């Protein structure tokens, strides 16, 4: 069976700046592929290629085994690739249910005589959130009144409800405390268990390791390797992320200064 998504030696340049160079990874159904790296590592460029916002310059991007060049995020969404960016694209003053259906509202009637079916939208939102284990007091409350973790969870539930096969999450735990981050990671695991392929972008190996099945490490646009969970420990993942050899050289240098 082919992977949901696959990149083979994908590269992307902006003028003379090489943002990505020869990056390969796979995203399978029912698995979480974690993309790790510091700022400037190329994480954002990679997910924008997967999400249809950029086109790759070199290499191959495959969806279910077929090479593609996505022309827009809309095309990616039509192919079942949903991306939840850090800013979440929510309208803070709008209710939870209006945000849940933003742009895809259920309607009654026909043509110019149709109107928004609020009752169905509210019931569907409540049911979809409950199925993901999200218990909101009131779907009428503005999204802006939710915590950061709850907002991420609503965005995840929305993608699942609208039939996403692949869910791409851009630093979903970056601005969250320990407890809120744990809540979001639980819903990431639920999406995986429902058969979605999940791409989790993060700079925190402690968030990636508990839910990840595969780890792609990026540094300055290049891949440091793509590892299955069985092949790498949390300690080694953290060491690779931090630039293990560089840290050891720095430690040795500092020890020499202290003497």
From TrEMBL:
PROSITE patterns: ABC_TRANSPORTER_1, ABC_TRANSPORTER_2
Residue intervals of the ABC transporter domain: 5-245
SMART domains registered for this protein in UniProt: AAA (SM00382)
InterPro entries per record: AAA+_ATPase, ABC_carbohydrate_import_ATPase, ABC_transporter-like_ATP-bd, ABC_transporter-like_CS, P-loop_NTPase
CDD domains: ABC_Carb_Monos_I
Superkingdom of the source species: Bacteria
KW Phosphoprotein (keyword) present: no
UniProtKB keywords: ATP-binding, Nucleotide-binding
GO molecular function, one term: ATP binding
Name of the protein described by the UniProt record: Monosaccharide ABC transporter ATP-binding protein, CUT2 family
Naturally occurring in which organism (per UniProt): Allokutzneria albata
């Amino acid at each position: 069976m082919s992977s949901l998504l696959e990149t083979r030696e994908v590269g992307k340049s902006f003028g003379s700046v090489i943002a990505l160079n020869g990056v390969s990874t796979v995203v399978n159904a029912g698995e979480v592929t974690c993309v790790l790296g510091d700022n400037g590592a190329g994480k954002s460029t990679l997910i924008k290629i997967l999400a249809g916002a950029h086109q790759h310059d070199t290499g191959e991007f495959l969806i279910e085994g077929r090479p593609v060049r996505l022309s827009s995020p809309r095309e990616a969404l039509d192919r079942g690739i949903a991306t939840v960016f850090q800013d979440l694209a929510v309208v803070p003053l709008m209710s939870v249910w209006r945000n849940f259906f933003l742009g895809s509202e259920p309607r009654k009637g026909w043509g110019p005589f149709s109107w928004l079916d609020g009752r169905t939208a509210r019931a569907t939102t409540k049911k979809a959130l409950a199925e993901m284990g999200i218990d909101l007091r009131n779907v009428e409350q503005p999204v802006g009144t939710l915590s950061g973790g709850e907002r991420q969870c609503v965005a995840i539930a929305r993608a699942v409800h609208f039939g996403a096969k692949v869910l791409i999450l851009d630093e979903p735990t970056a601005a969250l405390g320990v407890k809120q981050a744990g809540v979001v990671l639980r819903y990431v695991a639920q999406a995986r268990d429902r058969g979605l392929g999940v791409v989790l972008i993060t700079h925190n190996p402690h968030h990636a390791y508990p839910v990840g099945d595969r780890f792609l490490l990026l540094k300055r646009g290049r891949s440091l390797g793509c590892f299955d969970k069985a092949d790498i420990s949390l300690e080694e993942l953290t060491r690779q992320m931090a630039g293990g050899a560089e840290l050891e050289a720095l430690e040795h240098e500092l020890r020499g200064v202290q003497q």
